[in-house]
Design goal:
By secondary structure, the protein is of the alpha+beta class. The chain folds into 5 domains: about 110 residues, no CATH class; about 70 residues, no CATH class; about 170 residues, no CATH class; about 150 residues, no CATH class; about 160 residues, Methyltransferase, Cobalt-precorrin-4 Transmethylase, Domain 2, CATH 3.30.950.30. It contains 29 helices and 19 strands. Helix 6 runs antiparallel to helix 7 and helix 13 runs parallel beside helix 15. The longest helix has 26 residues. The relative contact order is 0.05.
């Protein structure tokens, strides 16, 4: 089907988009790339349509009339088609409202001599007749002769060359003929049911490149519950008015968590047997639980906007917990524990990666445990220290979660804007919304070497310890006043306000030459204050918690975790390699001599789980029992039976039908040395110690001091 025919059929109510399709999410770069490919006559993908006389709910205001017979629905390719519609017609297609267009990709300009594509830039295009709005070209509002005449007029009547004129003419033709390009179409037949059509839609997008798993799940839900998407969007609009801004994905994760107590396997929501359950759950979520949880977060966690955190998905375990309470509300102690965990989930970036797997773990704990937030907090503590160090602030900008935590804490202390004296809690009117500004003005710091020419100094200038929370009206009126003058005025006008935002009150530190000393002092104040703030929220119980092996693998190698592809099989030379066994022993010694750790065999450095099959084939008893016997014999010979019996815990978990070996190495009570053989067969003893994600040899001149400090106190 030609592109012009596709656009005409949209206007003639013959081609539609089903309601289960997502909004328009393409960015300007995507639009530019599409037009560039079309001009160059490159392939641009296909369109999947479904011809049906019984369509599901459609996007837009149009209501299907059965008298019109079968119609076509766009199942795949609608982002490209919407882009073409907007650029060729200059309007939003009838199946979308302006609110559903996340990025307006119109106003794209083309240089008709070079075919460069750019969005309008006044300085580049205002006085250059070669830059024209591509929509005007498509609509015939401007032709190549208009450009030629304007160029000649600009050159005081001097005729442009025939070669240049032809080039401009050819480029106009290349753009205009896009309308006649064929858009390859694949058609699902009329006999397909709604469920079959959505299944095909899912299969086409199952790679996750075009749609997320949550978006695909929403498409399936909309197939058996047509009103779902609109109901979800209405609730999101309500929440947004109070500062809680989410995408539809968020609600799908909430539904999955509440209904199935997991954070992955979105396919569990695909089948229509979920319909009554989803309706029932959504009724309670939309009318009670969501509002209840976000009111708690606003009133007791001091969160006025979701942009103050680094992951909105940390709300989900709290929502699941509140929902599972039924008609009973959370106690004040439960609320405090949930808030404390939420804060740590942000500053320790719990959901920055491996979101579904981590939600699986956390929601599972919430659904089953008596003290879930104690356990969840301890889980974070297993990954990273909970205590905030002053060094964590060095070079950290406002995008870091520590900045959000600073604001939560300042609000809890009833801190005020340093220029207006108004509370920094959410205020009335846009001009009093919260912003941030440099205490030492960046323009002054920039002139004194804290610029992009010195990345380290630039980072210090932008550091959150050089920031204060202000209302917008104050930030707009605050000049680039030196810190000493600005802070002196604040101290006089609003006594105590500097202390509430943890700004050192030693006036010598306000001098420009003491800028870095000011940062150092404020880091100490903030670290101590934030730790006390977090500790004071509530006490938590030291609940024992174990990290899942898969989660441990997904986290990657670190100070406490090491991956080894095999025990003894050389994957490169395809033979037994005794040197690999020495490497395994070295790792065990390094963990034992340090703080302990976990060795995982059957996993590559790239975190690919390949299993122990290759090692098994090198043993007479090619099973995990034979593997364990051989492994223990190695350790017995190297470090003694007592060590192997008391310091190692060996398991063989199965992940995705693949068996691996997990060896937990306890912190040793005495130093152990590893015998290694060089290429000449000479044996020497070496002392290995875990450092980061490697196990280097400790230099001989450092061993005595280390052993004395490490083991004499054990």
């Amino acid at each position: 089907m030609k592109i012009s025919q596709i656009l005409d059929k949209i206007d003639e109510n013959q081609l539609f988009v089903p309601a289960f399709q997502r909004e328009y999410v393409w960015k300007r770069k995507h639009a530019k790339d599409l037009i560039d490919s079309l001009i160059k006559d490159y392939p641009t993908g296909t369109m999947l349509t479904w011809e049906t006389g019984n369509p599901p709910e459609l996007k837009g205001d149009y209501k299907y009339d059965p008298k019109q017979g079968s119609v076509k629905l766009i199942l795949d390719g609608q982002q490209r088609i919407t882009t073409l519609y907007m650029l060729m017609k200059g309007e939003i297609p009838p199946y979308y409202t302006p609110n559903e267009i996340e990025n307006d990709i119109r106003n794209l300009y083309v240089n008709v001599e070079t075919i460069e594509l750019e969005y309008y830039r006044k300085t580049l295009m205002e006085k250059n007749p070669l830059w024209v709005n591509i929509t005007d070209v498509f609509q015939g509002k401007i032709r190549y002769r208009d450009i030629v005449e304007e160029l000649e007029e600009k050159n005081e009547g001097e005729r442009i060359s025939r070669e240049r004129e032809n080039r401009i003419d050819d480029n106009f033709r290349a753009i205009e003929k896009i309308k006649d390009r064929d858009f390859q179409e694949q058609i699902i037949p009329v006999k397909a049911t709604v469920k079959e059509a959505i299944d095909i839609f899912y299969i086409v997008n199952a790679s996750g490149v075009n749609l997320t798993d949550a978006e695909l799940a929403l498409a399936q839900i909309s197939g058996y519950w047509p009103e779902a998407r609109e109901l979800f969007k209405q609730k999101l609009n309500e929440l947004e008015k109070d500062g809680f801004v989410f995408k539809l994905d968020f609600l799908i994760y909430v539904l999955l968590g509440v209904i199935h107590n997991i954070g992955s396997k979105m396919e569990k929501l695909h089948t229509s047997d979920n319909l009554e359950t989803i309706k029932e759950v959504w009724e309670k979520l939309s009318k009670d639980t969501l509002d209840y949880v976000f009111n708690i977060m606003k009133s007791q966690a001091y969160i006025d906007h979701t942009k103050e955190g680094n992951s909105v998905y940390a709300f989900i375990p709290i929502i699941v917990y509140a929902y599972n309470k039924g008609n009973e509300k959370m106690s004040q102690l439960e609320i405090k524990k949930a808030i404390k965990w939420f804060y740590y989930s942000q500053i320790r970036q719990r959901y920055v990666s491996q979101l579904p797997q981590k939600l699986d773990k956390d929601i599972g704990i919430v659904a089953k445990d008596e003290n879930p937030f104690d356990r969840l907090l301890n889980l974070i503590g297993m990954e990273r220290p909970l205590k905030i160090s002053k060094d964590e602030f060095i070079g950290v900008g406002i995008s870091h979660a520590l900045w959000g935590l600073m604001k939560f804490w300042f609000k809890s202390r009833n801190a005020v804007c340093l220029s207006t004296g108004i509370s920094i809690r959410k205020n009335m009117g846009k001009k009093y919304s919260l912003e941030w500004d440099h205490i030492f003005p960046y323009s002054v710091l920039k002139a004194n070497g804290y610029n992009l020419n010195n990345r380290v100094k630039y980072a210090l200038a932008q550091e959150i310890t050089n920031r204060a929370v202000l209302t917008q009206v104050a930030n707009r009126t605050k000049s680039a006043k030196l810190a000493v003058g600005y802070l002196s005025d604040v101290k006089e006008k609003f006594p105590g306000s500097l202390n509430l935002q943890c700004i050192p009150e030693d006036e010598e530190l306000w001098e420009l030459e003491n800028f870095e000393l000011f940062l150092e002092n404020r880091r100490v104040i903030l670290a101590e204050g934030l730790n006390k703030f977090l500790d004071s929220i509530t006490e938590t119980v030291e609940e024992e918690v174990n990290m899942d092996v898969l989660e441990m693998i997904n986290e990657g190698e670190n100070h406490h975790v090491e991956f080894k592809t095999t025990l003894r099989y050389d994957m490169t030379e395809h033979r037994i390699n005794k040197k690999l066994e020495e490497v395994i022993l070295k790792t065990i010694a390094a963990f034992s001599n340090g703080q302990g750790g976990t060795l995982i065999m059957g996993v590559t450095d790239e975190m690919n789980i390949i299993g122990l099959f290759n090692d098994y084939n090198t043993l007479k008893n090619g099973t995990k029992d034979g593997f364990e016997i051989h492994f223990r014999n190695l350790v017995n010979h190297a470090y003694g039976v007592d060590f192997a019996s008391n310091n190692l815990i060996i398991n063989f978990p199965v992940i995705d039908d693949v068996e691996i070996c997990v060896v937990e190495v306890k912190q040793g009570f005495k130093p152990i040395y590893t015998t290694v053989t060089d290429k000449n067969g000479k044996k020497t003893q070496k002392f290995y110690l875990r450092s980061g994600n490697s196990s280097p040899e400790l230099p001989i001149n450092e061993i005595a001091d280390y052993v004395s400090n490490r083991f004499n106190n054990v």
